Amino acid sequence: MENAGKVGLFGAAGAIGQSIAVALAAAGRHYRVIGRSRSALEAAFGHDPYAEIVTWNPEDPASVTAAAQGLQTAVYLVGVPYNQFEKHPPLMEKTLAGLNAAGVERLILIGTVYPYGRARSEFVTEKHPREPHTFKGKMRLAQENLVLEAHGRKGLSTLVLRLPDFYGPGIERSVLNGAFEGAAHGTRAQMVGPIDVRHEFVFVPDVGPVVETLTRTPEAYGRWLHLAGPGTITQREVAEKAYALAGHKLKMMVAGKPMLRVLGLFNPIMRELVEMNYLMSEPLVLDDSALQTLIGPIRKTSYDDGIRIALAGASSQPQPNRH
């Protein structure tokens, strides 16, 4: 491990960005958070003396360059609306141009399992073919290929860290969030089915320390690596555990593929869930032994502990208004 330079989190305001920020601050490292909205960044990071807040326009390479000045490592967490995945590759191209112009040495893309398509083995290692059958998978593949092709050019080293689905306290964009909200308030859990297939989830607070370590591990770059969850669980088991902890009777409304198709007539995001529903019905479970060989054992929160913490997070929030 080496002395660590300054890290910038591009698209910092989401769940994973906040987890990485916590890990950087815990390591006593100053970092920069970069996003479109100063108010969102102030709300998330304004309390942290280690955080420097910078706004940018990811569509403008000059803005990327300005935001990246003085950074050693960029961590890319930029999201796009679920029905606009075609934006991923062009945004990445502009970011790479801006990072090169600023002389950034390292880039970590936080990636997904989408580029693999359907799993061809019980456990998926980094050797698994990247042959996506979905539009979203193809866009994410194009994005990460840009990142991997940039490795070794203009002084930049690149890495893709691939994560499964994630969950944690206050994380509304998790497929498990409906179970925690329902259990916390004794209402019906809104779930996307099927819910009896084993599935892998990473607990968001576990991600930050891994990324912090990778920012100062030069030998990690030039490839993609997996961070896996602590085994598998079914969505039904998560809901059962959460409702039992909360002392409520389990109540669920499960939207399977046919229901998603109907909801998609009225809601473009629901329409997009249909394409990716194969990940709910066919397990894709990552093997992260390559990462553990590189950086040593990884602390992983058990599902029992993670469910308890996520439920506490949901219980501290007011009941969501569902019209």
TrEMBL record:
Residues 10-214 form the NAD-dependent epimerase/dehydratase domain. Pathway: Bacterial outer membrane biogenesis; LPS O-antigen biosynthesis. Gene3D superfamilies: NAD(P)-binding Rossmann-like Domain (3.40.50.720). It comes from the Bacteria. InterPro entries: Epimerase_deHydtase (IPR001509), NAD(P)-bd_dom_sf (IPR036291). Belongs to the NAD(P)-dependent epimerase/dehydratase family. PANTHER family: DTDP-D-GLUCOSE 4,6-DEHYDRATASE-RELATED (PTHR43000). This is Nucleoside-diphosphate-sugar epimerase.
